[in-house]
Amino acid sequence: MLAVPEMGLQGLYSGSSPERSPVPSPPGSPRTQESCGIAPLTPSQSPKPEARAPQQAPFSVVVAIDFGTTSSGYAFSFASDPEAIHMMRKWEGGDPGVAHQKTPTCLLLTPEGAFHSFGYTARDYYHDLDPEEARDWLYFEKFKMKIHSATDLTLKTQLEAVNGKKMPALEVFAHALRFFKEHALQELRDQCPSLPEKDTVRWVLTVPAIWKQPAKQFMREAAYLAGLVSREDAEQLLIALEPEAASVYCRKLRLHQLVDLSSRAPGSGRLGERRSIDSSFRQAREQLRRSRHSRTFLVESGVGELWAEMQAGDRYVVADCGGGTVDLTVHQLEQPHGTLKELYKASGGPCGAVGVDLAFEQLLGRIFGEDFIATFKRQRPAAWVDLTIAFEARKRTAGPHRAGALNISLPFSFIDFYRKQRGHNVETALRRSSVNFVKWSSQGMLRMSCEAMNDLFQPTVSGIIQHIEALLERPEVQGVKLLFLVGGFAESAVLQHAVQAALGARGLRVVVPHDVGLTILKGAVLFGQAPGVVRVRRSPLTYGVGVLNRFVAGRHPPDKLLVRDGRRWCTDVFERFVAAEQSVALGEEVLRSYCPARPGQRRVLINLYCCAAEDARFITDPGVRKCGALSLELEPAEGGPHAADAPPSRREIRTAMQFGDTEIKVTAVDVSTNRSVRAAIDFLSN
C-alpha cells in the first residue's frame, strides 16, 4: 500500500533537516504509482557528493561491437596487450569497390521468426528470394534509428520488417547481438584455444551520445537476452558513447594517420604540403617541452604525436557523422595522464547518411508517384532492397567536384512492375515528370547529374553543419580550434568539403583520421580496456525526485499547501540530484538515505523525474516529466522475532547514485546490517 495520511509523519523521518520532510507527496499527486503495491521511500538530507574510484572486474579480452545504423562490426584486444586491436575477420560478400571491414546492419528471419542470417549473407539471400516468397520473410535494415526516434520506448516496442510484419524490437536487437557474440567468441577460440570462456570477456556496446537513458537501457536488456553477459555480471558489459570512443582513439593517433582538410588544394582529393598539422602545433609543442611537467605528460599519458604537440588543457570537438545521427562532444585534454574532460553536454540530432537515402526515395516519388513507390516497397520488398544497394554504391562515389553523371541501375522487377501498374514504361514517366536533372540512359539506367546527386546530400549536410555551428556558439566551446570528423558518413567527400568550407573560415581546423569508418570501433576497444579515460562528463538533463518541504508563505504557491497533523507542507517539490550541464566526475556519488514507510516492507519504488531546465522547482512544472523509477529490494529486518514491528525510521537504506558514467548507476546499503541492497533504476517501465 502507498503511504497514507493516517500513517502520520513521525515515523517517516530519516535524519532530514527541519525544513524538509522526506515524506513523499500524498496519493493522487503526479508522482505516486497506485499500482506498485509498495510504499515510496523518504529522502533525507544528503552530504556533498563524494568521488569513489570505480572497481574494475577482471577480464582477459575486450570485445567491442559497433552497432551502427547502416553497418556494424566488432574488434577486440587482449588485456596483456591492450593497444593491439584485432579487427574482425573479413566478411563474405560485399559490394564491388566498397571496403567491407564491417557488414551491413541487416537481419533476416524466417517466416516463422527464427534467425536465418545477418549482414551481407542476409542481404544477398533476401535479394535472391522469389518475390512472392520474399513477402513472407522478415527482413530488417537500418532499424537502430527506431530506438532513437521512439518517444515511448519500452521492452514491448515493436519493429516493422520490410514486408510490414512486426516483431518485438528487443528480439530483433538480441538476434543481431547474438550473431556478433558467436562470431567473436569463435574467432577468439581459434586464436587462443586455451582462453577460458567464463568471466573472460568484457563486452562493449556503442551507442550515440545523444541517446537518452531508456535507449541505453534497451541495448543492455538486448545484450542480456542475447547472452553477452548475465544480470549478475552486469559490470562485464560497458556502454560506450560513440563520439567518446572516437575521441579516445584519436588521441592515440600519429600525424601520418590524419588528413587535414584545410591543406587540400581546391578541387583535388590530395593533401597539400606537410605543413597541415606539423606547423600548426609546433609552437605548442615547444611550449610544452619547456614546461617542467612535459616529460611526465608525454611519457605517462601514452597519447599520440598530435596530442603530445597540444598543450594540456587544449580543447577540441569530435563530430561523429554516422548512418543515423550526428553526435557531437567537446573534450579537454588533462595533465598528467591524458585523461579527458567533457566541456559541454553531448548534442546533435538525426542527421545521418540515411537522410540522403530518404531524399533519393522522395526523388523517386516525384518521378514515378509516391503511391507507386509505397506499393512497390510493400509488394516487391527484395527488389526495393536491390535498388537501395545500387543507390548506395553510387552515393559513395559522389563528390563536390565530380564531372561525369552517375548511372543508377533499376531492377528489372521495378521496370516490369511499373509498366503493369501504370500502363507505360519508366522512360515515359521520366519524360513526363518535372524532374529534368534525371534522365533515362540507353543502357537502361537512371542517369543523374552530379549536381542532382549533391542536392540529395544538402538537407542532411546542412543539418550537420547547423548542429556544429550551434555548438561552437556556446561559451564553453569558445576558442576551440580543432574538429575531428569521424564516422561512416565522414568518408563522404561531399560532407568533408561542405564542413571544411563552412567551418574553415572560422579558424577551425577539420581533421579526418585515415580509417575514419573504424574510428569508433577501435576507440570502443580502448575504452573497454580503460573506461576511466573520460574522467568528467556533463549531465544532459536535471534529475531528481519529488518531496515535501516545510510550507513558506509567499515563497510557495498556495495550491501546493498540504496540512497534516497540524503541520503545513509544500507538496511536489523537485529535489534535484544533478543539474543539466553540471560537470560530474567518474565515480562521484550523490548520496541519499531512505526509510521504509511501513514495517516489513520488502520492496520500495521511488519515481524519478527529469527536465532540461536547471531551475525547476516542482515536479509539476512544464517540461518536468517522470522518466524512471528507483527500486530497492529489501531483505526481512534482522534482530529477532519482533524486528519487523520496529519503527521503520530505525531502518535506514543508504543509496549512492552515479551520474558521471555512460549510464546512470545506483547501489544501496542497509545501514543497520551493512549489507548490500539490490538496487536498480528502470527507465523503460513508463
TrEMBL record:
Region called Disordered, residue ranges: 1-54
Name of the featured protein: Heat shock 70 kDa protein 12B isoform X2
Gene Ontology biological process terms from the UniProt entry: angiogenesis; endothelial cell migration
InterPro entries (alphabetical): ATPase_NBD
Organism, scientific name: Balaenoptera musculus
Keywords: Stress response
